[in-house]
Amino acid sequence: MKKIIYLLLIVFAVFACTKSGYIIKGTTDLKWLNGKTIYLSDLSGVQFFDIDSTVVKNGKFTFKGVADTARVSGIWFFDEQNSQKIRRILILENGNIDVKIVSEDNIFVSGTKLNDIYSYFLKTIEEFYQKYAKAAEVSEMDAQKIQDEITQFEFNFCLENATNLVGKAIFLQSFYNFSVEQKEQITNLFDEETKKDEKIALVIENLERERRVAVGQQFVDFEQLTPQGDMLKLSDLVGKTDYVLVDFWASWCGPCIRSFPALKSVYEKYKGNRFEILGVSLDRSESEWKGAIARYNLNWKHVSDLKFWQNEAAQIYAVSLIPCTILIDKNGKIVGRNLHPMEIEDILVKN
User: Fold this and answer.
1) pLDDT for 224-235, tens place per residue?
2) Residues 281, 289: Cα–Cα separation, whole Å
3) Domains, the chain, ranges and CATH?
């Protein structure tokens, strides 16, 4: 009887040891990766750092260790031919994690609960992006509908996974597309430890400011310098036209630049008594700011304090990503935030 108990204890001890650590087993179809080093990195903090490395042998590689807690991590290797790092995010948690490197663009991770959840998210988002690309070939309106579907999927995913690390990670990369109410719904589900996370705490703090300038609230005034060196207040424009659009942008912002053609089209149709735009630049360089205005022929009002992300107007309006737009009616009421130019035009046509 004692021998049986002793054997059971050994089995239990071995099982416990297996469960207490992680084993990442990887395979690759890339022949050139044989003999190359693959790194395991910690991506959970502000500063990324490598925590382990291994060499690929006969198309296989392995990492072993113990995770004191689940964390956002990643594997990466250097593609010498294209001079670039190839990275795939994974959740480092205890258990058996499988990695399959099919190509530089296709790396699949599975095996543990959180990695399976994250892989499902990536697969679904990829399907959405393929639909978006096809829709964009047809019309901006069709593409915008797909973008709205993507935002709704991301919101639902974060809501359903608010109590795990994947939900937190996706929230941090998607929250800028959510309304104040949606952000509140998700952050209210976070536990106290998650709320203390530096990045999450900043979002929650920003929410306090965003509530004061949410759709339905009265606009908050600010004053900054024009390219000509004069001071211009937002209140100098509100009430002079039916609508004023505050457009937060920067010369270094690619998405901002891509938004200009559609925005210029709406402006040319409705500028004057119906519509005005106030561009607020998050540039640091005066010459780059003025140069971009001229280069892209942005013929509306402009201001900046050249304080980058610390721009005082951006702080007031809780801007965490650009482009960011705030639409204000002639009574000073905020009627839209982050609207597509088509949505802005729809408001102008109906009102």
Assistant:
1) 999 999 999 999
2) 7
3) 15-107 (2.60.40.10), 118-212 (no CATH), 223-350 (3.40.30.10)
